[in-house]
């Protein structure tokens, strides 16, 4: 008798955290508490440049960033924030803004109440709010502003700017252990303790614990996994994930994907950022695209229709399928700002662009719509499969244009009908 059990389907676990709400006007971005994992990013413009900052924030929001952080480091930057908010509102961009404060945030939030109101969330680094007796007072002033204006707060610890007094105390405690921990374990403990102690202090000052988001950012993949696993064990605050200083290009993208995917699969993390150093001339929106791809690859969210494409081999010496794949992916991404509202559900559509007869027809049948292009030596014909059935065969020099038109027609008929039925 066969006693084999069905192979369980792998799925990412759901976070069991509290839920914070990051609000601007009628826009409410829920973080944690069963909400979708949110994507955020950060500007690299000079905040004093109101127009330049507003334009970049709009680009990030359109690309899919659900919150955007910006540096607030000087009185001039604090004065610019309300004007940036006003420019965004005029453009119809209601993405919430996060103020990134270090060293002087207590003064800026106190001296510039318009800035404090225009922001939807404050990022506070416990290691950079002051030393000695000043620390509690200056941290308290920032929490008072958050309570007064009903704002969410991210207490963001970073291993490059740890609270040195706390670290020294933990190292002193460690020296008295019968079996002292390694230096890295002490650093992990300092990160977690700093975040949790600061959160507790904020709660004691009157901040709603549901409005607290924690982060403990490091730049090593295994370090990040270790720290967040422990942080998740010790609290149920919403957690922000991200490798700090992840790097440039493929290095930064791969490292971020490796670390975030492990944690998200385990149900750890409620909002993410992929902190990429942009290539010269590269759009800042690339980090948003990669964050979305991570969540979509894990099956946690859908943002754009997915395109399945073969890597190519000796059977596909033509570049036709590569060019068509690139063209279709760019086309789908460009259409999404319109399609997202016009065709609900289109982001879950699957498209296949395959290069030869080996896997082409099979993969195309598994997709909602797919095309199997001719490989080397094959007949110059490209069968198109729609909802698992062969519907037509494209030939000639205009296959790309014709297939794009087929995709547009499919989207309108399938997902447009959904819109009509909901009216």
TrEMBL record:
<dbReference type="InterPro" id="IPR058579">
    <property type="entry name" value="IspG_C"/>
</dbReference>
<comment type="pathway">
    <text>Isoprenoid biosynthesis; isopentenyl diphosphate biosynthesis via DXP pathway; isopentenyl diphosphate from 1-deoxy-D-xylulose 5-phosphate: step 5/6.</text>
</comment>
<keyword id="KW-0479">Metal-binding</keyword>
<protein>
    <recommendedName>
        <fullName>4-hydroxy-3-methylbut-2-en-1-yl diphosphate synthase (flavodoxin)</fullName>
        <ecNumber>1.17.7.3</ecNumber>
    </recommendedName>
</protein>
<dbReference type="Pfam" id="PF04551">
    <property type="entry name" value="GcpE"/>
</dbReference>
<keyword id="KW-0414">Isoprene biosynthesis</keyword>
<feature type="binding site">
    <location>
        <position position="363"/>
    </location>
    <ligand>
        <name>[4Fe-4S] cluster</name>
    </ligand>
</feature>
<keyword id="KW-0004">4Fe-4S</keyword>
<keyword id="KW-0560">Oxidoreductase</keyword>
<feature type="domain" description="IspG TIM-barrel">
    <location>
        <begin position="29"/>
        <end position="290"/>
    </location>
</feature>
<dbReference type="GO" id="GO:0046429">
    <property type="term" value="F:4-hydroxy-3-methylbut-2-en-1-yl diphosphate synthase activity (ferredoxin)"/>
</dbReference>
<dbReference type="InterPro" id="IPR016425">
    <property type="entry name" value="IspG_bac"/>
</dbReference>
<keyword id="KW-0408">Iron</keyword>
<dbReference type="GO" id="GO:0016114">
    <property type="term" value="P:terpenoid biosynthetic process"/>
</dbReference>
<dbReference type="GO" id="GO:0005506">
    <property type="term" value="F:iron ion binding"/>
</dbReference>
<dbReference type="GO" id="GO:0019288">
    <property type="term" value="P:isopentenyl diphosphate biosynthetic process, methylerythritol 4-phosphate pathway"/>
</dbReference>
<feature type="domain" description="IspG C-terminal">
    <location>
        <begin position="307"/>
        <end position="408"/>
    </location>
</feature>
<dbReference type="GO" id="GO:0051539">
    <property type="term" value="F:4 iron, 4 sulfur cluster binding"/>
</dbReference>
<feature type="binding site">
    <location>
        <position position="313"/>
    </location>
    <ligand>
        <name>[4Fe-4S] cluster</name>
    </ligand>
</feature>
<feature type="binding site">
    <location>
        <position position="310"/>
    </location>
    <ligand>
        <name>[4Fe-4S] cluster</name>
    </ligand>
</feature>
<dbReference type="Pfam" id="PF26540">
    <property type="entry name" value="GcpE_C"/>
</dbReference>
<dbReference type="InterPro" id="IPR004588">
    <property type="entry name" value="IspG_bac-typ"/>
</dbReference>
<dbReference type="InterPro" id="IPR011005">
    <property type="entry name" value="Dihydropteroate_synth-like_sf"/>
</dbReference>
<keyword id="KW-0411">Iron-sulfur</keyword>
<dbReference type="InterPro" id="IPR058578">
    <property type="entry name" value="IspG_TIM"/>
</dbReference>
<comment type="function">
    <text>Converts 2C-methyl-D-erythritol 2,4-cyclodiphosphate (ME-2,4cPP) into 1-hydroxy-2-methyl-2-(E)-butenyl 4-diphosphate.</text>
</comment>
<dbReference type="GO" id="GO:0141197">
    <property type="term" value="F:4-hydroxy-3-methylbut-2-enyl-diphosphate synthase activity (flavodoxin)"/>
</dbReference>
<comment type="similarity">
    <text>Belongs to the IspG family.</text>
</comment>
<dbReference type="InterPro" id="IPR045854">
    <property type="entry name" value="NO2/SO3_Rdtase_4Fe4S_sf"/>
</dbReference>
<feature type="binding site">
    <location>
        <position position="356"/>
    </location>
    <ligand>
        <name>[4Fe-4S] cluster</name>
    </ligand>
</feature>
